[in-house]
What we know:
Elements: E1 5-8, H1 12-23, E2 29-36, E3 39-46, E4 49-56, E5 69-73, H2 77-89, E6 93-100, E7 109-114, E8 120-125
Parallel strand pairs: 1-4, 5-8
Antiparallel strand pairs: 2-3, 3-4, 6-7, 7-8
Helix pairs in contact: 1-2
Amino acid sequence: MFDHISFGVTDIARSRVFYDAALAPLGLTRLVNVTEGTSTNSAYGKGGQPRLWICQDPADRPKPSEGMHLAFVAPDRPAVDSFHRAALANGGRDNGAPGIRSHYHPNYYAAFALDPDGHHIEAVCHAPGRFEDQFKN
């Protein structure tokens, strides 16, 4: 449905540290860095396809979108756990520890973080976990 998503950040260097670390467990890497005039941008994706752009333009002074929520597909539950640890270790804030969210469906395993600007970021795995994982929560 979407080709790409972009949103503003207030400190591109700080945001790169966060997204480089938090998206790595999900198989996403920084593919592009572009500076045009006063705007500095970085794009993340895989397979050479930049899908998520973070942008800083001091002339524009973007503000985080309170209602924005980005959910990334995780290949498995350990990747969700790694995403959450990396996000918190690199400038993010906890917004929901890894675990089952059965109110969505029985296998909805997700973790939530706020990036350095307060954007809501999630990693989710829909696949069933190991039998032992069903008894974690």
